[in-house]
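Record type: monomer structure entry
Structure origin: computed from sequence
Chain ID: A
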Amino acid sequence: MAVKLRRARVADLAELVRLEQACFGAEAWTRQMLADEMAGPDRVYFVIESGQAGLVGAGGISLGMDFAEIMTVEVDPAAQGQGLGRILMDKLVEVADQAGLSRVLLEVADNNDAAIGLYQAMGFAVIGRRQGYYQPSGQDALVMELRRGRPGSAAG
C-alpha cells in the first residue's frame, strides 16, 4: 500500500471523524473534540493518506509540558497490520525529540495487545494503570513511558 504521511489540516476533520468512529466506536472523539484538540497551540497532528482509501491513519502529540504526550494513534481496521502505526509512532517520537523532550507518555487500552506490543518494541514501558479510563466501556488504560536521552546528549 503506497501511503503519504503529512501534517493534518482542518479540511481533514470529516475524514478524521470517520476514522475515529471506525477505530474507537462509542469512545470516539466528536468532531468538535477533534477540532479543539488539533487547534491546541502545543499540539502536532499527522495523517496517513492512501490513494482512494483516503485517510487510513492519524496520530497526535502534545508538547506543552516538560514531557510529550501522545494523544492518539489510530489506524483504520482495514489497514492494520501493515506498519502504519509504527510510521505514526516513529514520527511522533521524532517530533518529541526535535522539541527537546526526553520523556514521551501515552495511554493504551489494556486489552489492545497489538498496540502494546508495538509500544514495547519501541522501548515504552508500563508505569501505571488508570482504572475505568475509557468511557463508556470502563476499559482500563495502561500508562506507558519512553525515556530517551536529550537530543545531542550521550544517552539515548
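Annotation 1: The radius of gyration is 15 Å.
Annotation 2: The domain at 4-147 is CATH 3.40.630.30 (Aminopeptidase).
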